[in-house]
């Protein structure tokens, strides 16, 4: 069936609410407004205000309330409107959700799912456009997901809700309108493994989330040049699927990491380091990286585009890797 | 519970906290306990009175000055001291220490060392009870320093908006670490802040265990019967330094001495003795019983074992059930 990322996400929430009465959704504008990005449109009418809970603009309180409700036996889905706003809830996410299990010696689990929009590309400028999922992936105790496809938008949520520990789901804002085909019986998917979205032999393009469609386009362009690129979609940013990274790098011997986060201290840096630590002698070229320019994302369209990873830059980095090794 | 029974019970509770913490201070000086150690000596009436009003399936969220809260909630002195010794027999297997005591069996949710960080969690625990139709109360303790935090205001608003069964207990000991309330708040009448959120708020004398117990009983009854969140401001005083590192430059000895005259344990004891409701024998027996409990706890903690370092990364994520 034809659907979109947004509709797939909504179907996932609806299914979770139907299957488990402990599941509820809370966040800013999730109810009467229908969700800032219309993900929860219609769910208030279907499930009522007890389970589709509009909250005040109190990110810390409602995220912490999600933690408390999870401790109290519920299975909350907390929606934070955008990753920049999640900074107002960092205390609860980092100091409580990520630590309670360890700090209590294993007595308490926090089965909480937090969803939020991430990323640039919509001219929303520096306070609505950042890609901070790599920051969150730095934190032990959290599981970080980045669904990039309609199937993952549909299937990751239910699996995340079965996880007894906190899971953060990052939904790139440019993906909501992306159409896709979904099996009629599409359902839960794993949240442990990376996925090869395009097999190839010459270079591995490693990415996740919002940049996946662009990287697939870059791979198509490379193919016209006779470069056969493999595209690995990380899907889960913490814990990283080291085996999948190993498999693709030892197959192609060249890697380019594409990450919309900034280069310094980033997830792309972590992946590059892991590849170099373990597969230095398997590599035919230095690991390449395509990241955002190190500026707050600007408003003007041409400046925003200049700041973000593009297919042109991915193609150039891949060519460099392929030609470096001769 | 007869009045006399209740009064003896409160006295015993406060004495247990006092002796536990005096023991902690000695053990800190002996370097058996490390890290930060914050004792509540002088403030015992707060935890004693409020805990006496709670039921076993209620929940408690406390601060980093929570040894007494944990003890009076039902966490054993053995496991509290073992925790501070960093032993795996401790309530958190030595992962938490003094500031992070947790106990699932008594629904004790910390031990939170971020000021005001426990309030949103308490709101969520109460939300879970409301959504699941349970008549439980969540008691959330915090100091007066917390009222300056955004999480305080966000949480009170949310609890009141959704009429959740939370008892907010503000332990006003006048100093946020070393800065007096008058230097940090434009409005120092804290009950007014709760009233702004339409939360019934009552002050009580936090040096008088009977007064705290009575105020807590009324508030807990109101919360449990569906009256929404309530707020107690308990005015109290910490006799000792903020932590073991505090040189106490911010208050003079005369002020401390004037509060020590209102020692909640000495006050209740004197009241009971004046009314002939506590014999010298009963007082002696109570002290001996509590001393024995603490001696046993020290021995338990001393005999505890360090967790093998191979287990360092355990309890980060839930371990898969073994078939």
Class of chain B, according to the CATH hierarchy? Answer: Alpha Beta
Question: What is the C-alpha radius of gyration of chain A, as a whole number of Å?
Answer: 20 Å
According to DSSP, the number of beta strands of chain B is 8
The CATH topology of chain B corresponds to Rossmann fold
By DSSP, the count of extended strands of chain A is 14
Structural class of chain B: alpha/beta
Order of helices and strands of chain A: EHEHEHEHHEHEHEEEEHEEHEHEHH
**Assembly classification:** heterodimer
Tally of alpha and pi helices of chain B: 11
GO molecular function, one term (chain B): pyruvate dehydrogenase (acetyl-transferring) activity
Cofactor (chain B): thiamine diphosphate
Function (chain B): The pyruvate dehydrogenase complex catalyzes the overall conversion of pyruvate to acetyl-CoA and CO(2).
Enzyme class (chain B): oxidoreductase
What can you tell me about this protein's structure?
The complex is a heterodimer of chains A (326) and B (323). Chain A has helices at 5-19, 43-47, 59-71, 90-97, 100-103, 133-136, 150-162, 212-224, 242-252, 267-279, 301-307, 311-324; strands at residues 2-4, 23-27, 52-54, 75-80, 113-118, 143-145, 167-172, 179-181, 195-198, 203-207, 229-233, 236-238, 255-262, 288-292. With 326 residues, chain A is α/β, with parallel strands linked by helices. Chain A has two domains: 2-181, Thiamin diphosphate (ThDP)-binding fold, Pyr/PP domains (Rossmann fold); 195-324, Rossmann fold (3-Layer(aba) Sandwich), CATH 3.40.50.920. Chain A has a seven-stranded mixed beta sheet, with helices on both faces. Chain A has a five-stranded mixed beta sheet with strand order 9-11-10-13-14, sandwiched between helices. Chain A has a two-stranded antiparallel ribbon with strand order 1-8. In chain A, 57% of the residues are buried. The model of chain A has no long low-confidence stretch (mean pLDDT 97). With 323 residues, chain B is α/β, with parallel strands linked by helices. Chain B has one domain: 3-Layer(aba) Sandwich (Rossmann fold). Chain B is built from eleven helices and eight strands. Chain B has helices at residues 3-29, 44-51, 67-73, 77-84, 118-131, 150-161, 190-195, 209-227, 253-260, 264-274, 280-303, and strands at residues 59-63, 108-112, 138-143, 166-172, 175-176, 179-180, 201-205, 230-235. In chain B, α8 links the parallel β7 (201-205) and β8. The longest helix of chain B has 27 residues, at 3-29.
